[in-house]
Structures are given as structure tokens and as C-alpha cells.
């Protein structure tokens, strides 16, 4: 049986996944400040980024002309 802490941890992980998907789908990349710690190292494609670099990369990669719509929230 899971402890209360383990249940809480699992719920927080699920919430973080939801928050990440929502931020990307809504293209509100500043919401990622609530998902990633300031010193996070984030891997996209074949590159490592800090949090601010990752947000900038997403802004450039997912601009409206290239990709529209929602993908995680269906």
C-alpha cells in the first residue's frame, strides 16, 4: 500500500505533466516556470537547455505559423 507521501508525490507528478502539456499547448511558455526548477536542465531534440533557453526554443519552434492547435489536451 502506498503511503500518503507517495500518493501526494504521484499527484504532484501528474499535475506537473498536466501543467507542462497545458503550457505547451497554450503556447504560454512562462507557465513552465511553475513546472521546472530554475536550475533545471531540459533536453529537446539533441540539445540541452536551461529553463530560459528551453522557453525561447519552444517559442521559436512552435510559433503559430508552423504549428497550430492542441496536441496534449484532446
Structural description of this entry:
There is one protein chain. The protein has helices spanning 4-25, 51-61, and strands at residues 41-44, 47-50. It has 74 residues and is mainly alpha-helical. It has one domain (4-61). A two-stranded antiparallel ribbon has the order 1-2. A hairpin with a 2-residue loop joins strand 1 and strand 2. The chain is elongated. It starts with a helix and ends in a 13-residue tail after the last helix.
Characteristic key phrases:
mainly alpha, 2 helices, 74 residues, 45% helix
Instruction: Please give the count of helices.
Output: 2
Stretches where pLDDT is under 50 for at least 5 consecutive residues are: none
Shape: elongated
Strand order of the largest sheet: 1-2
Mean pLDDT, to the nearest integer, reads 89
Strand content: 5-15%
- How many domains make up the 3D coordinates? 1
What is the distance, rounded to the nearest whole angstrom, between the alpha carbons of the first and last residues? 32 Å
Query: In this structure, how is the largest beta sheet organized?
Result: 2 strands, antiparallel
InterPro entries: NTF2-like_dom_sf, SnoaL-like
Pfam family, one: SnoaL_4
Organism: Sediminihaliea albiluteola
Protein name: Nuclear transport factor 2 family protein
Give the helix/strand layout.
Layout: H1 4-25, E1 41-44, E2 47-50, H2 51-61
Antiparallel strand pairs: 1-2
Domain SnoaL-like: 5-72
Protein name: Nuclear transport factor 2 family protein
Pfam families: SnoaL_4 (PF13577)
Amino acid at each position: 500500500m502506498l503511503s500518503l507521501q507517495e500518493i501526494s508525490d504521484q499527484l504532484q507528478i501528474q499535475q506537473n505533466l498536466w501543467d507542462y502539456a497545458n503550457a505547451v499547448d497554450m503556447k504560454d511558455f512562462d507557465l513552465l516556470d511553475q513546472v521546472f526548477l530554475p536550475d533545471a536542465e531540459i533536453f529537446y531534440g539533441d540539445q540541452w537547455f536551461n529553463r530560459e533557453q528551453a522557453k525561447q526554443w519552444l517559442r521559436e519552434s512552435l510559433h503559430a505559423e508552423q504549428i497550430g492547435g492542441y496536441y496534449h489536451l484532446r
